[in-house]
Write a structure and sequence with these properties.
The protein has four domains: 79 residues, Alpha-Beta Plaits (2-Layer Sandwich), CATH 3.30.70; 309 residues, Rossmann fold; 129 residues, Glucose Oxidase, domain 1; 102 residues, Immunoglobulin-like. Helix content is 22%, strand content 26%. The chain is built from 18 helices and 34 strands. It has an eight-stranded parallel β-sheet, with helices on both faces. It has a seven-stranded mixed β-sheet with strand order 19-18-24-20-21-22-23, with helices on both faces. Strands 27-34-33-29-31 form a five-stranded mixed β-sheet, with no helix packed on it. The N terminus is likely disordered.
Length: 733
């Protein structure tokens, strides 16, 4: 793939080459694959609709030695053309908003030929993203009478349309009942395409062909209606709902099982944000690696959507606790990490000596009674299962990244159950459990050591596994899940702290944290319809909690220590506080263009890949800024021995309702780093939406770490508001 870092007509060295990607395919490879074809906008029609679609068809026809009519209306259409065949064999979709181009089914040699043409900016092969898969309104304080977000906002997302991109939905699920729901607003222009299943005032439309638990779960998490007497694995958990139970749902199927097509997500983004009229979009998918923005179609599509006023919530990923694994790093997206919640699915382990240990499972299973137990350690990938006879036995093993894969290995080898041990000394692992090929229990490290000691104490160790139902612990304190992907973003010059924030996710991963924040955004959007997506995001981040109500810090379950910003972002979302943040950091296209140009991207990427609302941008003439100077609610700077000082700039906008409000800076400096805020006093009064600029200077001290990270905070404090920003410093030699 040709990198948009290079100018369109200059043969400069590239990071990736379209010719390189297609060179591996032989000339006689007739396999049709999906490509996003990005075209140079300046040569196309000024208007959209049919003229633009016809132009795209003509470009495709010129490469395929066909005709425009044949591409649009099918071969042999003649004079009786009928309706355009969009979604046909070759021209899959013609974009008008999120990118300048179209999706087409091409043979590799055709894509390579197209990539050489001057009108073609890039021919990007489709890629896949992975899905990162009741009681949370209470957990987040939304349902608290009088003081909760629903009461303070005076709404539950009424009239707001939330679009969910996932792997399908069960339209007849009880969470999508429309009792008490009003019809969708007049701006809704979408269709109901669920294979004949009806829509209603809750599930108002979208497109899905399959009934999938994952998409049903994410949709219900965001906007599910009130459901009484909810039964989860045999336990009655009372009444449950989504974050915005009065919001409308539009579901777009973009995934098959847990694999999601990048071009399908791009298409659904255009449909939802620009054609159908959604207000919020939630995507619970992430790549298995960090990508530059020009190679990340979620970033490409979401830019235009956010600039058009659509809030965009994405998942951080499930590759934690390893550092630099966070994905969805674009600063215009909200990137959400995952915390635990006060719900445990209990799976009891009873040893032959009578000792009972409480572990966790993901769902109900049939009891395994009095079977031999064997420990295989963590060497299963090196053939341990072949070296140890596990037939008709319960297998004890160490924690792994892919529980589902290990379960299948154990099942294939004849095992009847599995016990997985957390890697940490004091905390229960929260890695999403596997696909339940067999009975399973995940136990803490100390309990795992106890089980191993029992196995070593007897010649015939035995054990039983029993599912014991679901337990809600209302007093449990949320903590950062072990699996939630960690920052920082390992991409050149990104310069923003990710993840942005944390929401409830365990046990289903960051897949569920993203729709939690999407639903909360719907409630805020209803309360403040004039707020831009960046303002809503800033309100969430600057009011997030890094301590619990009892003053104790939020814990990282992978270490047992207070969570870092690279694990939790700004902290745990606090929906009620987010409704009245006082000050916000807004971001517009005027802020983002200098940032994108500063990354080294050229004019063709800015104008053609992230098409709206930018027109004819010339990066050579545009102001350029570094990531540290982007008007972001958090701070991330890098200090080295050669460059021990960095200054970041910000502009705060007052959206408080006080006639006069004075804020003073309160700084907790990162260890080994001096911090100076100028000015350290901001006064607002009189005119609405007043703006005040300030700088934050970071100076590396002699006692700073040679290589690592240091963290602190900046609070702007008035008599009514406390506006908190994380200060993260990367210290390098």
């Amino acid at each position: 793939m040709r990198s948009p870092i290079r100018p369109l007509l200059l043969l400069l060295p590239t990071i990736l080459s379209a010719l390189d990607l297609t060179a591996a395919a032989t000339d006689d490879d007739d396999t049709l694959r999906t490509y996003l074809v990005v075209v140079c906008r300046m040569n196309g029609p000024k208007e959209g609709g049919e003229p633009l679609r016809a132009w795209h068809a003509s470009l495709l026809a010129s490469v395929l030695n066909s005709t425009t009519d044949a591409i649009l209306y099918g071969a042999g259409a003649g004079g009786n053309r009928g309706a355009p065949v969009i979604g046909g064999e070759r021209l899959v979709y013609s974009y008008q908003h999120v990118v300048s181009g179209f999706t087409a089914r091409l043979r590799p040699r055709e894509a390579a030929a197209m990539a050489r043409l001057q009108w073609c900016v890039d021919a990007v092969p489709d890629s896949t993203y992975t899905l990162t898969t009741t009681d949370t309104p209470r957990l987040l304080g939304m349902s608290t009478p009088r003081t909760g977000a629903w009461s303070v906002a005076g709404n539950m997302g009424d009239g707001v349309i939330v679009g969910v991109l996932d792997n399908g939905v069960d339209p007849r699920h009880v969470s999508f009942g429309d009792e008490g729901m009003r019809p969708p607003p007049a701006k809704w222009r979408g269709k109901c395409d669920f294979g004949g299943a009806p829509c209603n005032n809750k599930l108002i439309g979208g497109r899905a062909k399959t009934l999938e638990d994952h998409g049903t779960h994410t949709s219900g998490t965001a906007v599910g209606a009130f459901v009484r007497d909810v039964m989860v694995e045999g336990s009655n958990l009372g009444t449950a709902s989504g974050m915005a139970p009065r919001a409308h749902l539009a579901m777009y199927e973009v995934c098959l099982a847990d694999m999601c097509s990048a071009t399908e997500m791009l298409t659904a983004t255009e449909r939802g944000a620009f054609l159908d009229g959604v207000d919020v979009l939630s995507i619970s998918a992430s790549d298995n690696k960090q990508k530059p923005f020009y190679d990340d179609l979620i970033a490409v599509g979401s830019f235009s959507a956010v600039m058009a006023g659509v809030f965009f919530s994405t998942s951080a990923g499930n590759a934690g606790p390893t550092a630099e694994t966070v994905t969805n790093c674009a600063p215009w997206q909200l990137t959400v990490g995952a915390s635990t919640m006060g719900r445990r699915v209990i799976s009891k382990v009873q040893l032959g000596n009578g000792l009972v240990i409480n572990g966790e499972a993901s769902r109900r299973y049939k009891r395994v009674q009095n079977k031999p137990i064997v420990y295989v350690g963590g060497r299963f990938a090196d053939g341990a299962l072949k070296a140890v006879d596990v037939r008709d036995k319960i297998v004890l093993c160490n924690r792994v990244e892919s529980a589902a894969m290990l379960e299948k290995m154990v099942a294939d080898a004849g095992g009847v159950g599995m016990i997985a041990i957390s890697t940490q000394m004091q905390f229960l692992a929260t890695t999403p459990l596997g696909a339940n090929f067999m009975p399973l229990s995940r136990v803490s490290y100390p309990d795992g050591e106890t089980i191993k000691a029992y196995i070593n104490s007897t010649a015939n160790p035995m054990a039983s596994l029993r599912f014991a139902g679901v337990v809600l612990n209302a007093s449990a304190l949320p903590a950062i899940a072990e699996y939630s992907s960690r920052g920082p973003c390992d991409l050149p010059n990104i310069g923003v702290l990710k993840p942005d924030i944390t929401g409830p996710g365990a046990k289903s991963g960051t897949s569920m944290s993203a729709p939690h924040l999407a639903g909360i955004a719907a409630v805020i959007k209803k309360a403040h319809p004039e707020w831009s997506p960046a303002v809503i995001k800033s309100a969430m981040m600057t009011t997030a909690d890094v301590t619990h109500r009892d003053g104790t810090p939020v814990i990282d379950l992978s270490t047992g220590a207070p969570a870092s910003y690279f694990a939790m972002g700004a902290g745990l979302v606090n929906p009620t506080k987010a409704l009245d943040p006082g000050l916000v950091y807004d971001l517009t296209a005027d802020d983002l263009v200098p940032y994108i140009c500063g990354l080294g991207y050229n004019d063709s990427f800015v104008n053609d890949m992230i098409a709206q609302p930018l027109k004819n941008v010339t990066c050579a003439k545009s102001k350029k800024i570094q990531g540290k100077d982007l008007n972001y609610p958090s701070f991330l700077v890098t200090l080295t021995a050669a460059a021990p000082v960095a200054t970041a700039r910000r502009t705060a906008t007052n959206i408080g309702k006080q006639p006069l409000e004075v804020y003073r800076a309160e700084v907790v400096a990162p260890p080994g780093v001096a911090v100076e805020v100028v000015p350290n006093r901001l006064e607002f009064g009189g005119a609405a939406l007043q703006r005040r600029e300030f700088t934050v200077k970071f100076t590396r001290g002699r006692n700073a770490a040679v290589n690592g990270a240091a963290e602190g905070s900046l609070r702007w404090v008035s008599g009514k508001h406390s506006v908190r920003s994380p200060l993260a410093v990367l210290l390098k030699p």
